[in-house]
Fold:
Amino acid sequence: MIPHLVWCAGPDGRLKFCNNNWLGATGLAWKQVKGTDWTSVLHTEDVSRVQNSWQSALADGTSAEAEARIRTADSSYRWHQIRAMPQFARSGRLLNWFATATDIHNRKLVDDSLRESEARWRSVFDSSAIGVAITDMTGRFLWVNPTYERFLAYSQEELRNLRFIEVTHEAFRSHNTDLIQECLDGKRRQFQIEKLYRRKDGIPVWVRNNVSIIRDQAGAPRYIMALAENILLQRLASIVEEQYDFLAIADLEGRPLYVNRAGQQLVGLDSEKELRDTEAKQYFYPEDWSLITHAIKDSILTSGSWSGETQFRHLKTGERLPVLYQGFRVDDPETGAQNNIAILCRDISARKEAELAAQAAQTELARVNRLTTMGEMAASIAHESNQPLTAIIANGGACLRLLAHRHPDLGEVRAALESIIDDASRAAEITHGIRNMAKKIDSERVPVDLNEVIDKVLFLTQGQVRSWSVAVQTDLEAGLPYVIADRVQLQQVILNLVMNAIEAMASTQDALKKLVISTRSQQEDHVLVSVKDSGTGIALDSTQRIFEPFFTTKSSGVGLGLSICRRIIEGHGGRLWAMPAEPHGAVLQFTLPPR
Structure:
């Protein structure tokens, strides 16, 4: 047996079932009510309100709840709390309503009694600066005064549907509940607690609550009464005093009326008397006070705020104190009148010292970079000039050998001397180009046929190709778009890539040494050059490092060739990259934009 009135009604409200408590309370027999509208037992003033509650629940698919008067067997009416739950078919069609009713008549009488007595002391509590709230023993609000409403930003009607624990911040709920229980157990008569309420708008507010249990004549607990005092300003004052920043309230001329403890220590104030006797401009150096007066007049008082860097002056030592100054205008919330200026200043002395140290470090770094660049340039000239100088030596030796013959072939001697002159010119051009790059002098750029440059490089390297037994294959696209470039620098790049590829195949069997050079035109007329070898290959995690200055995988290398190549290609608006080749070896490719 459950002590509630229980019934089941169809979608149209007609009764399908009701328990004995329902029949006994209403004094009706089942045969009298079967199939009738269950609302026929409600007070006529309550029918519309209950039906609206059920319709809202039906629209939301949730349970309905309402208070209403039910006619009893003696034709009187008693207040009940009615709760109903809709039952839906899988298709969403409403099948039934299942409802219960709990007698709350005595509680309503108490409510009425409270309302009658309320008029006697409402004027006192309504005008009080202290918030007053009365709840039932479950903590549900029964009555609050206007001050309490303002604390929480809830109306009286909204609070009647809440319990005090629901507006108490989560961090204080357990402790608050324990104190209430101690009062109910007789361990205390009342208690005081400082806690956070959470307002309707979500903003927390600090209150100090004095809580008492109101008992009836028999000593049974009936109500909980709380007197709440807003202590937000006290809390804020405590927080302000604990801050490490300079916090102050000034008048509209900028004269500080209040400075927190940290602020007084920062500028050297020792007492409230010193604060009162110190003029606003004494906090600043003359040039900075002029800045602040303009900021107050042109920004804070007109647009509401200003922030910027300035300098305080220590009142005792005269030391300069760089600070980040923020000023805010404080207006009267009711009249809008300008009242004060709130000032927040943060000491940035440490940051300023760090900035000076960073500047010194940057100056030193720039000097080191210049020295490094000079070293790189010297190494670059040595590296890039090595090949033509080696060719000059070889051709010079050939000349000597030819001239040592009894009947020297002057044609061959002439060809060797011409090669010497070409190689010497190329060495000079290389040196000149590297110096221009280091000095950021624009190189001479003309329309260049990359296929022609590649043919020239292969001609220059035919001796190395033969001596290393490398098979060279070219796949050069006909009609390739010209690029605007420095011919010597592009020749230098392709020569480096070809020589690196040849050297990478040094340990490869002669039958497998294969060098493939190809060109392709891409979208938007970009040109792609690819140099592929069948050597030892390149690790995937080294495809970026090989372009770093002085990084090399060769025991005799200096690690500058590919770094210079990338710098040249990027200087022409292109991109150079590397990747492993299949099934082995490496591919180096670069693109250049159209002319």
